[in-house]
Each structure stands twice: as structure tokens, then as C-alpha cells.
Write a structure and sequence with these properties.
The structure is a homodimer. The first copy, chain A, is an alpha/beta fold and about 325 residues long. Chain A has a domain of about 230 residues: NAD(P)-binding Rossmann-like Domain (Rossmann fold, 3-Layer(aba) Sandwich). Helix content of chain A is about 40%, strand content about 15%. Chain A has twelve helices and twelve strands. Chain A has a seven-stranded parallel sheet, with helices on both faces. A three-stranded mixed sheet of chain A has the order 7-9-11. Chain A has a two-stranded parallel ribbon with strand order 8-12. In chain A, strand 5, helix 6 and strand 6 form a beta-alpha-beta unit. In chain A, helix 2 packs across helix 8, helix 3 packs parallel to helix 5 and helix 5 runs parallel beside helix 6. The longest helix of chain A has 22 residues. Chain A starts with a helix and ends in a 7-residue tail after the last helix. The mean pLDDT of chain A is about 95. Chains A and B meet through helix 5 and helix 6 of A and helix 5 and helix 6 of B.
Chain lengths: ~325, ~325
């Protein structure tokens, strides 16, 4: 990896967010010249503390991917673009579908147009989502599973993903997409449930308050963020990924209730209550989901390395130490 | 059909275009109160002559589906919306992807939002396209075929289609989508090849000039516009269509070269030349395509009734009579 990234210019959209900032930490270690773009919209995942320790070794550019002018400038001269900025809330996408469309469709298309016109040699790795599969028809879900999004966010992310594949196929702007499942770890948004339900679980646990499990029987898989970062780097480094779509996944499948029990165990204490699923979420719920990630294992030799208990342990430890940077008491 | 549409309020976007105007003629016969929205953008399919004979029995509203304000007003009080306005040029979508996105994604989402807020009882029938399948993996192509669009237009139409299905499923805004194949007949744009290659064939044939066949071996199916109109009406009339996607198709499969021969025969004369496929089109070409339309045959008892030779004959006869309204000599 050092050989691939040392001295190379790398741009991350959403670079102050959860996965983007973890990627930045790793790429700084690898000797890349980093530029991080982030809009720092308070409701999204960006947080300046996420780059604590590497502030002096990255360029931070506060701008929004909807700002075509800044993107046009920033994309130039870059060897790699990790394209992670996105609107991720399913409920928000239903309440304000135009904002979701602007960020997840329009901006993706305009970023790719900028690459085509001003930097066609760039390689782009797009953060897609399992959400576009909708309610699984079979498990585990592989990349050949039909895409049947159940919310506006899923439709727009699907389009955003396809623009990347299209620009690879038609214009040779090398690109690929990783369909992420639930990703967890340090630097995720935990002040509320806007990024992941696990965020608010961790916060309430550390505040000594009971957290809420909605449903509980749903099966899920989880990727620890360091493993997700490794997948992004492997996808960037290899031409085998060009034009491809890869699922990420986890080392185990677990129900939400089992996850809650595990989290309490890892924390050596804590409480939760179970509730039936709220109506506004139920209509866009997807039931059980877990991924078949054998395609990326075959093509890029990726597999998850951090077991779930350790992932939860590291996560809880991080927020126990740094909680004052993630929520106000 | 009279029982369904007589006295009902019906809005058609793209109502001065090819399929929209044919639908308007039929709905006027059926006694519906018609409003036709069209932007009359010169490069698109709208033509005021398309409503010759029914001008006094329809309301024409010149506005663009991107104009959310006019759509908000016009949707109110309607029983049915035939949502046909679209950017249809594959090449244009690659040259100006943002315009395609605005029309085929953003406007669709905003029309559906307007329906949700101001007229949730409306039924919406969306004109989708076979283009979203991309290069077929098997033939004939049924609705379960993977969608793998090969151009920006295909991606955006796919998103537009999915918004309709989503709003049906989540908000009960009854909606469905028809995936059209090549539709032909009177009132299509023939001055150039912007709407369909058959348009410019017909024009050149009637001008006594040779037309160009690119490739020639590609297999295609064709729907005569009256059959397409019938499918839209059946889809509107039945709740069996809600949330569904249906392919349209044709009664025969034919190569482009055979089609050229048939057109010359129907016209009792004419010439064409064959050419290899131009590079800028080849990269977004889909090869052979023809549809399996058994789903709509089962659900709505639709099937094509006008055989291809008759479809071509009626088309040529129409433009022989009315060519001065479709191109300048």
C-alpha cells in the first residue's frame, strides 16, 4: 500500500465524516498528500475532531459537493478520489427528496463531469449502500440481487452509483462502487441516530441511560471501519475493480437484540428496552439483511479482520475517551 | 373505456408530443376533460399540429415539467396523469447530463411530491423505456431482467420510474410504469433522428432521397402508437397496475435492414444505404432487443393489434399528407 499511495494526491469528499476521516488517517500513514472536502453540515457526519492528530498533514477544504465550482478546482491534479460525501438519512430523503437528489444524484454527475473534462486519469471510488437492494429476496445478498430501493435515498444512491459505472465504461474514467453495509467504529456520529442507530446506542450507554431497540429480531451484518478503509484502499489500488460493484460485509450475522446484549457485555454494563417498530420507519424497513462479499474477496482479497466484539470494544473505548467532542453534556 | 374516462379530468405531460397527442385524441373521443402540458422545446417532440382536429376540445398549457409552480397548479383536480414528458435523446444525455437529470429525475420527483401534497387520489402512468435494461443478457427481455443502463438517460429514466413505484408503495399515490420499446406512427418527430431513427427514414423516403441504415443486423420490436395508447388507458383504468412495471412490445421481431426493406415496399419505392455504426453511438448501443410483454397481457389483457406493415403504411400515409407540418421543404 505504501508503494501505491506514497506521494500521491488524494481527495476525499466527506473527508471529515466517519469513514472519510478514518481513510484520511490511514492515507496520511501511507504518505499520501491529502485534501479533505467537507461541508460540515451540522446534521451530517463531518466533525473537525475526526482529524485530531493529522490536522497538520492534511488540507481541509470546507465546501459542499453541490458547489460545482469548488469541485472543479479541487479535482484537478488528484490521483485518487474517494467519493464519500452523501446524504445518508432514509427518513430525511422522504421528507426532503430534493436535497437528497441534489447531493446523491446531481452532485455525483457533476463531479464525474469535472473528472471527464479536467482530470480523466483520476480513479474514483464511490461509497454506495446496501440500501439500494431494498427488501432482500434471498440471503445473503450478492451483487446480482435485484435492486429495488424502498426510499428516495436508495433510488438516488442507485443512480449515483450507476453514473460512476457508466463513466468508467463509456469514458474510461476509472471508477468502482462499494456497497457498504452497517459500518461502525470510532469517528461515527453518535450524538443521535442520524447516521446509524448504533450511534445513539453508544451515547446512551456511556451516559448510563437505557437505549432503545426497535424490533430486535432483524438480522444484520457489520463492518468495522478499519476493514471498510482497507476495502477502499484495495479498490483504489487495483485495476481489477474498474467498473465493478462490490458488497462489503461482516464476519458474523447477528440480530439487533443480540447486538444490544453484546454491546452491554463489552461495556461491562448498561440497559436497553425493546419497542415495536415505529410506523414511519416500518414502511421503509428492509427486514433482515446480510451480504455475500465473496466477489471482493475473490477480486481484491479483501475480508473483514476485526471481529464484532472487538469492533464494539474499540468503539466504546473511543467514545469513553473522546465523548466531549461528539456530544454536549 | 368510455365508462372509465367520460367526464374525468386528465392531464398529459408531453401532451403535444408523439404519444401524448395520440393519447389526447383517443381520450377526447372517450369524453375526458383534457389538459395538455408541453414545453414545445424545438428539439423535442411537441408540435401544435399534433392536436389538429381536437384544438377546441382540449386545454393546452405551455409550460415545462421543470416549472414546479405550474405543475403544482395543473395537477390539482385531475383524476389521471399520463406522465410522458421527457428528454429522450441518448446522445443529448451524454452531452448535457444535467438537463437530462433535471427533466427525467428532478421533475418526476417534484411532480410526485405535488401529487402527494395536493392530489393524493390521482393515478399516474409513467412512460418509461427499454433503454434502462442496457445490453440484453437474454431475449426476449422480461421485466425481471437486470437493469444496467448504458447512458445517462437510462440511469435517469430508471430513477424516474422508481420514484413512481416508491410513491405508490409508500404513499399510495397510485402509479405504474410502462417500459416502451420503439413506438412508431403518426405524429412522431420525423424532421430528424432526434426522437427515433425511423423518423428521418420516413422523411427522406418521402422526399425521394436515400436514407441511411446504420448496422442493419440489430433486431428490434415496434409498437404502433395506437397500441401504446391502449396500454396507457388500460393501465390507468385498472388497479391491477398499481405499483407495477410493464414492458410493451410488438407482434414481430425484425432486423433494421428488414425494416428498411419493408418500409420501401410499403412506400412502393425508395432507396437506402447501409453504413457501419458511428463510434459515438456504438459505445452506448445495446445490440439486439425485443421484449417479452406477457406480464401486461396477463394482467391487463393488452396485446399489440396493428401488424407492423400496416403500422408503417399508416405512418407513411400520414406524413405524405401532412409533411408540411413536420418539416420545412
Amino acid at each position: 500500500m505504501n508503494e501505491v499511495f506514497e506521494g500521491r494526491n488524494v481527495l476525499i469528499t466527506g473527508g471529515l465524516g466517519f469513514i472519510g476521516s478514518n481513510l484520511a488517517h490511514r492515507l496520511v500513514e501511507l504518505g499520501a498528500h491529502m485534501t479533505l472536502v467537507d461541508s460540515l453540515i451540522p446534521e451530517y457526519g463531518g466533525n473537525l475532531f475526526n482529524i485530531a492528530g493529522i490536522e497538520g498533514r492534511v488540507k481541509v477544504n470546507i465546501s459542499d459537493v453541490r458547489d460545482q465550482h469548488s469541485m472543479r478546482y479541487l479535482v484537478q491534479g488528484q490521483d485518487y478520489l474517494f467519493n464519500l460525501a452523501g446524504q445518508t438519512s432514509h427518513l430525511d430523503s422522504m421528507q426532503d427528496p430534493n436535497v437528497d437528489l441534489d447531493i446523491n444524484c446531481r452532485s455525483q454527475l457533476s463531479i464525474l463531469e469535472v473528472c471527464r473534462k479536467y482530470n480523466p486519469g483520476i480513479k474514483v471510488i464511490f461509497a454506495s449502500t446496501r440500501q439500494i437492494y431494498g427488501k432482500p429476496e434471498y440471503l445473503p445478498v450478492d451483487e446480482n440481487h435485484a435492486v429495488r430501493p424502498v426510499d428516495v435515498n436508495g433510488i438516488n444512491k442507485m443512480a449515483g452509483e450507476w453514473y460512476h459505472i457508466l463513466y468508467n465504461n463509456v469514458y474510461n474514467i476509472r471508477g468502482c462502487a462499494l456497497r457498504l453495509t452497517n459500518t461502525i467504529g470510532p469517528r461515527m456520529r453518535v450524538k443521535d441516530a442520524r447516521q446509524t442507530f448504533l450511534g445513539i446506542w453508544v451515547r446512551l450507554l456511556l451516559e448510563g441511560k437505557p437505549f432503545e431497540v426497535w424490533g430486535g429480531e432483524q438480522l444484520r451484518d457489520f463492518t468495522y471501519v478499519d476493514d471498510a478503509v482497507e476495502a477502499f484502499l484495495l479498490a483504489a489500488a487495483s485495476d481489477k475493480s474498474n467498473g465493478q460493484i462490490f458488497n462489503l460485509g461482516g464476519d458474523c450475522v447477528i440480530s439487533l437484540k443480540e447486538l444490544a446484549d453484546l454491546l452491554v457485555k463489552v461495556n461491562c454494563g448498561g440497559e436497553y428496552s425493546t419497542h415495536s417498530y415505529p410506523a414511519d420507519r416500518k414502511r421503509i424497513d428492509i427486514g433482515d439483511y446480510y451480504a455475500d462479499f465473496s466477489r471482493i474477496r475473490s477480486a481484491l482479497a479483501w475480508e473483514p479482520k476485526v471481529p464484532l466484539p472487538e469492533a464494539l470494544g474499540r468503539t466504546v473505548a473511543y467514545y469513553r475517551q473522546h465523548h466531549d467532542h461528539y456530544w454536549d453534556n
